[in-house]
Design goal:
By secondary structure, the protein is an all-beta fold. It has no helices and seven strands.
């Protein structure tokens, strides 16, 4: 998983789907970065909600995954500047692990 951001846009990259393009990421009044996305690809249909906070140069995030017909589940991740997340494995909702 990687979250790549510029001053005008961002992109969430997961190994199992096409990159999710996002608008500019701006922390809310609590300091959290929040966004939601709907993924509708062949073999992968799910929604996700992302909530993250910076601690220095590291982003700690919680993702809630909602797959039709399944109970939503939550994963936590720590993303570092080099793009490596330090928790795992990441399991895409359709199956398989990174």
């Amino acid at each position: 998983m990687a979250l790549v951001a510029t001053s005008s846009s961002a992109e969430l990259r997961l190994y199992c789907i096409q990159p999710i393009r996002l608008p500019r990421l701006v922390p809310d009044w609590t300091g959290a970065i929040r966004f939601a996305a709907a993924v509708r690809e062949q073999g992968n249909t799910f929604d996700l909600r992302f909530v993250g906070r910076f601690r220095g140069d590291t982003l700690s995030a919680t993702i809630t995954w909602t797959v039709p017909g399944r109970t939503p589940y939550v994963t936590t991740h720590v993303l570092t500047p080099d793009g490596v997340y330090t928790t795992g494995p990441l399991v895409c909702p359709a199956g398989g692990a990174a």
